[in-house]
Write a structure and sequence with these properties.
Blueprint (H helix, E strand, L loop, with lengths): L13 H9 L3 H23 L2 H17 L10 H20 L36 H13 L2 H12 L4 H8 L3 H23 L6
């Protein structure tokens, strides 16, 4: 198959890679996949919490990216554009797999008050800001798998993909206030899940 053994640095700049993609160079598509596949898969897995579905999103993302490269206007980086395709594909899959009466847009009453974490005032480490450490990053990934789907998606989009509140709200067809509420709840839940690993002030 063409392109399987190409050098990732064959195209020195993103402009060169884009030019080759727009000329339908198969090696360029292979190079694009090799450069971004790992991150696309990781982001899809965070949203879907299912390796098989993440693999499907990975494939669909690059099929669409190669097919629609002519629509890429260069307003953002190529990677950002690819990640947005992956995000949209993952969200569509989430909507298809959920019960028709329970969508990603469901209101906050899905999470009962009794299910909210308690006694977190002494916990001093923000999991989003502390994820630079490899071991802690792994712990965060495990904790993300325990979040309810609607909270996990919000946290991934806002904290890990760097989307703004307004962008996230538009993408999920939610109000900005709903996004803020869910993000707050996701952070609290993650703090609870990571508390045993990170400890609290006053631990010895």
């Amino acid at each position: 198959m063409s392109g399987l053994k190409i050098d990732l640095h064959r195209y020195d700049t993103e402009e060169e890679l884009l030019a080759a993609l727009r000329q339908n160079d198969p090696d360029a598509c292979t190079c694009m996949v090799k450069r971004f596949a790992s991150l696309v898969y990781t982001r899809a897995l965070r949203m879907l919490n299912d390796p098989d579905e993440a693999e499907s999103i990975l494939q669909q993302t690059f099929i669409k990216a190669c097919q629609k490269i002519g629509e890429f206007e260069g307003r953002s980086g190529l990677g950002t554009w690819i990640y947005r395709i992956a995000t949209n594909e993952a969200l569509m899959l989430l909507r298809r797999r959920r019960h028709p009466t329970t969508t990603i847009d469901t209101a906050e009453e899905m999470i009962p008050v009794s299910d909210m974490p308690q006694n977190l005032s002494t916990w001093t480490v923000d999991p989003a800001n502390s994820a630079l450490d490899t071991e802690l990053r792994n712990q965060l990934e495990y904790a993300l798998q325990e979040l309810p789907e609607n909270l996990r998606v919000i946290f991934v989009l806002r904290e890990m993909q760097g989307m703004s509140t307004s962008e996230t709200a538009a993408l999920l067809d939610l109000s900005e206030s709903a996004v803020k509420v869910r993000l707050h709840r996701a952070r609290l839940r993650l703090r609870e899940l990571l508390a045993g690993y990170l400890g609290t002030e006053g631990d010895t």
